[in-house]
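Section 3.1: Structural characterization of target chains.
Under the original work plan, the team committed to producing a structural model for every single-chain target entering the pipeline before any wet-lab resources were allocated. The record below documents one such target. The sequence was received from the expression subgroup and is listed exactly as submitted; it comprises 150 residues.
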Amino acid sequence: MEEKGHTISDFNLDELEVGKQRSLEKMQWRNEKREEKRYILQTFLESHKFGKDVNEPRIRKGCFLFSKPKEVLYPLHKAAELGDAEIVRLLLAAGADREQRTSKGRTAEMIALEEDLLGSHKEVLMLLASQIKVMPLREAIKLMEEQKCL
């Protein structure tokens, strides 16, 4: 019995091109989403007078000689205070320290609890209470490979 060999002509080149195009479109879409998230996070940091590092406190400017010093907040504390789950998620994915304390010793979770009115900060509290690290899928796969989980 003779086996028939396959040549490149056996494949539908149009289907390969369509698949390649779809793959490029998906990659472009992922890149656009990534840039959109970066922009949202950067806008949040700038609008609340934070630097570019998600683990740096608010930039304090001006003369504080005669004013009562305010609590030093970090980006995650502000997002928790506002009840903004999307920003909390982005900050955690960017490496924000959920255990970071303010100058008065409060964590982001404590602040969210204080601000919560009838469940208004429920999603933020769930994100902050979980011990799950938010990270991109590819980073998670790499970590699992390093830990010999895969």
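The longest helix spans residues 13-47.
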